Structures are given as structure tokens and as C-alpha cells.
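Researcher: Structure for this, please.
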Amino acid sequence: MLQIKDFMVNPVLTIGPGKSVLYAAEFMQEKNIGGLPVVEGNQLLGIITSRDIRLNHPNRIVADAMTKKVICCSPLDTTWDVAELMKIHRIERLPVAEKDRIVGIITKKQIIKYISQLNDHLTGLYNSSFIYMLASKILETGNEISVILFDINNFGEINKSYGHVQGDNCLKTIAGILQDRVDNNYDYVCRYGGDEFVIVTSKKIKQAEELANGIIDNIAEETPKTGIPVTVSAGISGGKRKYSRNTVKQKNVIENLINKASLASTKAKTMGFKYLIV
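Model: Predicted structure, C-alpha cell format:
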């Protein structure tokens, strides 16, 4: 899970409040950028964007033309936080500020590029990196967190018997069932790797158990219609967890939950159970 400090642009190109709008326009064109933080000393006063330049006479000074109410983010914010911030305020460039001092700049293009890497191209689900980010958001709220890990039974045999193309189709079918069953207000689903899928949810363990049981039954009912009967086993872990701003501690908590669910899934498969809760 990346924080903004990991890939923000630094040092930042800035402009003084006494410069002309014309100077700002020429400087932005030369550097091929869409906005400039307006800084005096170390203090961020505003931002002048290409829109501000279009709306103001070239001879005006930047202090009069700039947008004074600046939306900023913290270097400790996650890419998810900033993507939401940009969406809400419909902006494409965000100054990164720390103690009222500008320390970087982040653009919508950078965010989109990073988030596009979080998709599993076969199933269309998010990949494991994104699920860590979402799990971190649940931890931040202080709510309970539950993890369900689904593991396809005998997937290696499916590939051997039907071929890898049909094996891929099987993965896509299961991904579709998972997407149909989850509630996007509480549940986040990803392809964790290979034949494993993970749901991270803010639901309590009992609700997670009901969700897992329904999905397991649904997969067993629906997949024979595709010509390849499939069953899955699941492991469920969760409960209240302490939130920490420390990203290493966050990751350890999430990894521990996923690892517990994975071991429970393997045990359920070995014992012939649909799922196990740990």
C-alpha cells in the first residue's frame, strides 16, 4: 500500500505571488504542467491553474488570479485517500503539505497509473495490493474486520482435465459470482493469487460466515451449468483490531488475518468442511 510520499513529485515547481499571469502561463507551458503552487517563503498561499490563467488578464499578478482555497493532502495519505479527494473536489493536481509547508505535488495522472496496476486483468477484480489498502481503511474506522479466503478445490486437476483456457474461464466464473454476492458498501473482493480469492469486510464474523456459506453454495450450484463443476473451501478470520498509522504494523495485522484465513481454508479442505472460522 503506497503512501503519497512514496511517489509524489519533489522538489516542487512553484511561483511567487508577485509574478504576472503571463509569466505563469509561459512557465507552465515550458514545463508542461497544469498548475503551480503559489509560495512566499515556505508558506503556501494558493495555487494557479490553467483555468485561472484562462479567466484572468495576462497582466494581472498571480496573487489576484490564483485560487486561494487550496485543497492539500498529507504525505502520509494513501493513494486511495487522494483518489477520493480528487474525485470529490474535481481536481487534477494536489499540493502535498506538511505543517503548512509544501513538500511535494501529486497529479491525477499519477494516481490513475498506480490504481490501474491494482487490477487483476484476467478476472477484472482488484489484486492483493488493493485489498491491503481497503483493509487498512476498515482498520482506520475502528470497526470490526473480517477476512474470508476462498480456495478452489482440486484446481490443478481442473487445469489438467479441461486445459488452462477452461481453467481461466472457471476463475472468471467464480469472480463473477463473488461480485454478484458482495455488498459494495461493506465487502471488498479481490483475486489474491492463483486459485485464491479474498473478501475483506467490515461485517462481524457471524455475518461473514453467512456470506461465505452462501457463496460456497452458490458456486456449487452455478458452476455445473458451465460444464465444469467447481467447489471451494473457505477460511474466515477477524474481529476487532487496533489501528496504527504505522504502515508496517498495519500490513502485519492484515497479513496475519489473511494467513489465518488461508490456513483455515486449507484445514477445511483437508477435513472435508465447507469452511472453518479461526
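Researcher: Any notable elements?
Model: Strands lie at 35-40, 43-49, 93-98, 101-107, 145-152, 187-193, 196-201, 232-239, 275-277. The two ends are 25 Å apart (CA to CA).
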